[in-house]
Specification:
Elements lengths: L1 E5 L3 H12 L3 E5 L3 H8 L10 H10 L3 E4 L2 H7 L2 E4 L14 H13 L4 E5 L7 H12 L6 E5 L9 H6 L4 E5 L5 H8 L6 E5 H32 L3 H9 L20 H14 L5 H25 L6 E5 L14 H11 L3 E5 L4 H7 L6 E3 L12 E4 L11 H7 L4 E4 L6 H6 L3 E3 L4
Parallel strand pairs: 1-2, 1-4, 2-3, 4-5, 5-6, 7-8, 9-10, 9-12, 10-11, 12-13, 13-14
Antiparallel strand pairs: 6-7
Helix pairs in contact: 1-3, 4-5, 5-6, 9-11, 9-12, 11-12
Bound molecules: uridine-5'-diphosphate-xylopyranose (UDX).
């Protein structure tokens, strides 16, 4: 099937590559000339495991191409996916101006029947607005359908999540576009739920908020564990073995971040408010998340007494492992908090150092260190801020020798407390 994707961010680019991989003919459109130029010359604007290979393979096979022209994208395809950013506004609501602009532009180029599919995360009722806008701005008298098809991929696992989804959600205003949507997703072999437009849009915000709630819940439990000497990982294991609860998203830590959860939570709270419902449960999820960071900073400050002129080695800058994304990263927030307390930082991340430099500039108090094993040199303490697996391979023996004190604050529970104690470390983690 001929498909176009407007927007080549995390969602758009990965979706385009995966659609091409299963045999569809895909045109990726982006207004950013530099990005399209980079993609055309074989470069990658983002780091995502497996994506580069997939893009190169499908470009070479002639199933995937890039352009800055929406007209070309609309002309070539029957189905046009919108995957543009929906950034937060200062009041927590969502900026839908990119969606509105793209809807107008698509309408202006349509000369035959099209299915316009929204993939971006949007407030409930956006699809209705998109349909209204297309109707208003469509010059030719052509038919179209608007579909909501939210994306659930996780950064760092985007290709895997797209190729093996748990479910495909398709929200429609009429049955007409359903066969086309089924045909697109048939190769992925996942269950497909067909519902109305508003339900599909709600499924996305409700799912992300629920996952954030799960993380805040286990973080709240971690406070009780610390107060009683219980172990939050054991508690999570015991809870998660109940299949109704499940093991995933029960990792206690310094809180969730990234470009989705914080934004989607604020947006969902705002959407509820506009619909006349005070979603206090989700406000509490936000509060617990913020407090988790406060508590961790306090733990560091209490142990080191004064942070001024102390050197801390920070492992991790990305908002989670397997990504170079530092948007709303708890690790970056932690660094900024420690800097405000007067600490000097030696920081490292396996993938996110170049993106981090833009938000955490190198300077007299911030040194970027290429080799994780060189981070501990001259440090008063180490801090784990991101759950990169590779940090578990840190040379602890060497670290002990080059640090002023062997102290490690583990914000992601990567190390075993007993083993750390045996090795002579002062070791503080979350809820253990
Ligand atoms: C999330 C959703 O998982 C995905 O379905 C949606 O499409 C986009 O938002 P993403 O933001 O890529 O994906 O990352 P995710 O893996 O969900 O992690 C989000 C944050 O929660 C990270 O900061 C991570 O460190 C944190 N987290 C996750 C925890 O603190 N504990 C956990 O148990 C899981």
């Amino acid at each position: 099937m001929r498909l176009s994707i407007i927007g080549t961010g995390y969602v758009g680019l990965t979706t385009g590559a995966c659609f091409a991989e299963v045999g569809h003919d895909v045109t990726c459109v982006d207004s950013d000339e530099a990005k399209v130029g980079l993609l055309k010359s074989g470069g990658m604007p983002i780091y995502e495991p497996g994506l580069e290979e997939l893009v190169h393979k499908n470009v070479a096979a002639g199933r995937l191409r890039f352009t800055t022209s929406i007209a070309e994208g609309v002309e070539r395809a029957l189905v046009i996916f919108i995957a543009v950013p929906t950034p937060p506004l200062p009041d927590g609501s969502v900026d839908l101006s990119f969606i509105e602009k793209v809807a107008r532009e698509i309408a202006g180029c349509m000369t035959s029947y099209k299915v316009v599919v929204d993939k971006s995360t949007v407030p409930v009722r956006t699809g209705e607005k998109v349909a209204e806008t297309i109707r208003r701005y469509c010059r030719a008298r052509v038919d179209f359908d608007v579909v909501s098809n939210p994306e659930f991929l996780r950064e760092g696992y985007a290709v895997e999540d797209l190729m093996h989804p748990d479910r495909i959600v398709i929200g429609v205003q009429s049955p007409r576009p359903v066969p086309v949507m089924r045909e697109i997703y048939e190769p992925f072999g996942a269950p497909i739920i067909v519902t109305d437009l508003n339900s599909a849009e709600l499924i996305k915000h409700a799912s992300n908020s629920f996952l954030a709630l799960k993380i805040s819940y286990i973080n709240a439990i971690s406070v009780l564990c610390e107060a009683t000497g219980a172990n939050v990982q054991e508690v999570a294991l015991g809870m998660g073995m109940d299949h109704r609860i499940g093991q995933e998203f029960l990792q206690a830590g310094i809180g969730f971040g990234g470009s989705c959860f914080p934004k989607d939570l604020s947006a969902f709270i705002k959407i509820a408010e506009q619909l006349g419902y005070d979603f206090r449960l989700l406000k509490e999820v936000q509060r617990i998340n913020a407090e988790q960071m406060d508590r961790f900073v306090k733990k560091i400050a209490d142990t080191l007494w004064v942070l001024k002129e102390k050197t801390l080695g920070v492992l991790g800058l990305a908002f989670k492992q397997n990504t170079d994304d530092v948007r709303m990263s708890p690790a970056i927030e932690l660094c900024q908090r420690l800097l405000r307390e007067g600490a000097r930082l030696r920081v490292h991340d396996p993938k996110a150092m170049s993106k981090a430099r833009a938000v955490l500039p190198e300077g007299p108090n911030v040194t970027y260190v290429d080799d994780m094993n060189a981070v501990p040199e001259g440090c008063d303490a180490l801090v784990v801020a991101t759950e990169w697996d590779v940090f578990k391979k840190l040379d602890l023996e060497r670290a002990r020798k080059v640090m002023t004190h062997p102290i490690l604050f583990d914000g992601r529970n990567l190390f075993d407390p007993r083993e750390m104690e045996r090795l002579g470390w002062i070791y503080k983690s979350i809820g253990r």
